[in-house]
Amino acid sequence: MMRWPAVAALAVAAGLVVLFALPDRTERRAEMPASHEVEQQYGVRFTMVGVTADHGLLDVRFIVLDPDRATDMLSDPARLPDVVVESKGKALPSPALTPMIHDPVAGRTYYVLYRNSGGVVRVGDTVTLAFDQASLRHVPVL
């Protein structure tokens, strides 16, 4: 016959095993870098780059800071940034399914979707968002 102290000790031991066996839910994500140069020249602040659509697309999100500067980029697909996979030095193909925005609103979040053919970009990679005259490097991919 088991005694209560033994049962309590067994319960505590089992609880500790379960606690240490669970994954760490406090993992930290890499912070999104900022570029004063990109913000000044293009009027946007990038907030996220993430893999989506079963790894077939890359979702690039940003907030419009200056609608006048952002309009040039958002109304012409040729002016959108190239996404360069830093570990491979390879740029993704042109954006896909990208809405052209002619009247952006300051403070609003917008997105651009890029083709991620063959799953070139993966969660945990870092990319560079490269413009003609500026770039945002070491962007973590979620």
Q: Give me the number of helical elements.
A: 3
CATH topology name, in short, is Immunoglobulin-like
CATH class: Mainly Beta
Number of structural domains = 1
What does this protein look like?
With 142 residues, this protein is α+β, with helices and mostly antiparallel strands. The protein has a single domain, classed as Sandwich (Immunoglobulin-like). Helices cover 23% and strands 29% of the residues. The protein contains three helices and seven strands. The strands form two sheets. Strands 4-3-6-7 form a four-stranded antiparallel beta sheet, with no helix packed on it. A three-stranded antiparallel beta sheet has the order 1-2-5. About 8% of the residues have low confidence.
Main traits of this protein?
142 residues; alpha+beta; 3-stranded antiparallel sheet; single chain; Immunoglobulin-like; 23% helix; 4-stranded antiparallel sheet
Give a short overview.
With 142 residues, this protein is α+β, with helices and mostly antiparallel strands. The chain has a single domain (36-140), classed as Immunoglobulin-like. The chain has helices at 4-21, 36-42, 67-74; strands spanning 44-52, 57-64, 82-85, 90-91, 109-115, 126-130, 135-140.
Q: What order do the helices and strands come in, and which of them pair?
A:
Elements: H1 4-21, H2 36-42, E1 44-52, E2 57-64, H3 67-74, E3 82-85, E4 90-91, E5 109-115, E6 126-130, E7 135-140
Antiparallel strand pairs: 1-2, 2-5, 3-4, 3-6, 6-7
